[in-house]
Amino acid sequence: MVSEKKTRGAWGEKEACAFLVSEGFSVVECNWREGHRELDIVARKGDTAHVVEVKTRRKSVYNDINSLVRPGQQRSILEAADAYARSHSWVKALQVDLLVIIVGGVVPLVEYYPDAIQPCFSKM
Predict the structure, then answer these.
(1) Structural domains in the chain plus CATH codes
(2) Is 67 helix (H, G, I), strand (E, B) or coil?
(3) 15-37, pLDDT tens digit by residue?
(4) What's this model's pTM, rounded to 2 decimal places?
(5) Is the Cβ–Cβ distance between 92 and 122 less than 8 Å?
(6) Cβ-based neighbour number of residue 108 at 10 Å
(7) What is the pLDDT of residues 88-124, one digit of tens each?
(8) Half-sphere exposure of 43 toward its Cβ, with a 13 Å CA cutoff?
(9) What share of the chain is helix, strand, coil (3-state, %, to 5)?
(10) How far is CA 83 from the centre of its chain?
(11) What is the C-alpha separation between 37 and 85, in angstroms, rounded?
């Protein structure tokens, strides 16, 4: 049986993809895996790969990025993003973004934080 949290998360990732497309991104990958690490979404805008971590929440109460994405999870995302960039020659630059979807109202609220998880690098 699929948990409510997983169902909400999958729904949030679909909403995130729709938002990114509406903002001019091309969605390249969803749930890309490298070993035990996973990237929610890899989107492209120009030569930049945007790794997008998606958080779907019922409330908009959070203090900072560390309350949404723990430092260990940030490290894991950065390692997977690095592996993705090294294995895809089209990636010239990489940034890790955060997209928060708040549900519970009439319309979901999307909060997009570009370049939210550091460090980011350019690939030569």
Answers:
(1) 4-117 (3.40.1350.10)
(2) helix
(3) 999 999 999 999 999 999 999 99
(4) 0.88
(5) yes
(6) 14
(7) 999 999 999 999 999 887 888 999 999 999 874 544 4
(8) 27
(9) 30, 40, 30
(10) 15
(11) 14
